[in-house]
Write a structure and sequence with these properties.
mainly alpha; 7 helices; 434 Repressor (Amino-terminal Domain); globular; about 130 residues
Amino acid sequence: MSREREEFSARLRTALKDAGHTSYGPTDLAHQFNARFSGSPITVHAARKWLMGESIPTQEKIRVLSKWLAVPADWLRFGGYDSPHDGPISNEHIDPVYQSLISDLQRLDAYNRKLVLEFVRLVTRLNGSVKNN
């Protein structure tokens, strides 16, 4: 196993955990990923290899994972900073109202930033379950 694949796997597990997916296995990962990916579906075996540090997905799949898990694609693939929220944020496709919100969020200390992120994820999950019912 290469260090690069192991580090990708650790970042993927961190992103899953931070997004509220605490007990994700390869079956869950493959199912959720395939629901968001327009290309050929991945197998449970491929998802297991990502989680175990045996392979790294293609850049196209990295982009889908990063969008789903709300982390920068470059952080997910290459790392370079401790947290996905420590690195640069590209503003090119973000509405100015949300740019201001992001700026406010970045000014918070780590504890309060985590509280806000957890709240947003909770509301998002609740909103998703309301729409599905």
